[in-house]
Amino acid sequence: MTRAGLRAAFAAIAAAACVATAVACDPQSASGPRSAPAAAAASRQGKAEGPLLVYEQTENGNQDLYLVPVAGGIARRLTDHAASDGLPRFTPDGRSVVYSSDRDGHFQLWQVPIAGGEPRRLRKNAFTEWQADVSPDGRSLAYLSNEGGPEGLWRMDLASGASRRLVLHGNRTIFGNPHWSPDGRRITFSSNWRVGHQIWVADATTGEAERISGVSEGGCEPRFHPDGRRVVYVRRGLMSEKSRLLEHDLETGEKRVLIDWPAMNYDPVYSPDGSEVAFSSNITGEWVVYRQRLADGKSWRVSFGKGPARYPDYQPVGFRRRGDPAAR
């Protein structure tokens, strides 16, 4: 496959993960945003301070990674390569970003310091390996790989390089978006095994997995809340032009809508203090990264410029936990 073909495949698979199934999403349409998406004027001016957001953006046909201060500032390009660089995740210390790239002809896992410099390849083989997340203790990597045939959820020890498959569902199963729980004991992911894209939570040691989404509901792109008791994910009706971001309480099974804009809303991630979510939406007609505060629904635009922006992730430093009297 040509480099252009790989880039197109990356975009198609990543953007349509929930659409690959018939029962993945909510048949109800969104009723509209709680507040209009507001552009933060400071996002294109001012000094870059505080914790960062990383995201992917395609400009002039080239998909790379960008960093921008959460509080607003000038976006800085982190990678610059003719290949597709995407699906970024910060390392637990906030000093590096792990991402997926086809710069060597097929998708593999890479890491780059946020200060810039030469990216380092984390694994080198002939398989397609992507969508990675580093464990909270920084010792393990959860990722997707088709090593051995079908795609599955894998875990690698970063010190030794030893890897093993945790979850395998079927020969044609599409997995998505693995994410570690804050205590490092579980990994949430999506899988379209048997009944369409659903949300799963697996034991990070044994690989024993449990589906948490309803068969008639489905979902994709799950991320744990910082308290480890909740998961946010995308819920979309079959071929619908709208999607919601839902929060699922793992203890009670209760669900609540976090984002209900009349658009395609994807790629949710909680801030480290749990006070807001970052996500991407095409409410303007093009994919843009936003932040929304959960307490009052106030939102800010994060990404600017021409070209779609997707898959934000918060730097896990510089935030204070709820309950801290010094919390912002």
Can you give a write-up of this model?
By secondary structure, the protein is mainly beta. The protein has one domain (3-314): TolB, C-terminal domain (Neuraminidase, 6 Propeller), CATH 2.120.10.30. The chain is 4% helix and 41% strand. The protein has one helix spanning 3-15; strands at 52-59, 62-69, 76-77, 85-90, 96-101, 108-113, 120-121, 129-134, 140-145, 152-157, 163-167, 175-180, 186-191, 198-203, 209-211, 220-224, 230-236, 243-249, 255-259, 265-270, 276-281, 288-293, 299-301, 309-314. The strands form six sheets. A four-stranded antiparallel β-sheet has the order 3-2-1-24, with no helix packed on it. It has a four-stranded antiparallel β-sheet with strand order 4-5-6-7, with no helix packed on it. A hairpin with a 5-residue loop joins strand 16 (220-224) and strand 17 (230-236). Residues 1-16, 19-48 and 321-328 have low confidence and may be disordered.
Q: What topology does this entry show?
A:
Layout: H1 3-15, E1 52-59, E2 62-69, E3 76-77, E4 85-90, E5 96-101, E6 108-113, E7 120-121, E8 129-134, E9 140-145, E10 152-157, E11 163-167, E12 175-180, E13 186-191, E14 198-203, E15 209-211, E16 220-224, E17 230-236, E18 243-249, E19 255-259, E20 265-270, E21 276-281, E22 288-293, E23 299-301, E24 309-314
Antiparallel strand pairs: 1-2, 1-24, 2-3, 4-5, 5-6, 6-7, 8-9, 9-10, 10-11, 12-13, 13-14, 14-15, 16-17, 17-18, 18-19, 20-21, 21-22, 22-23
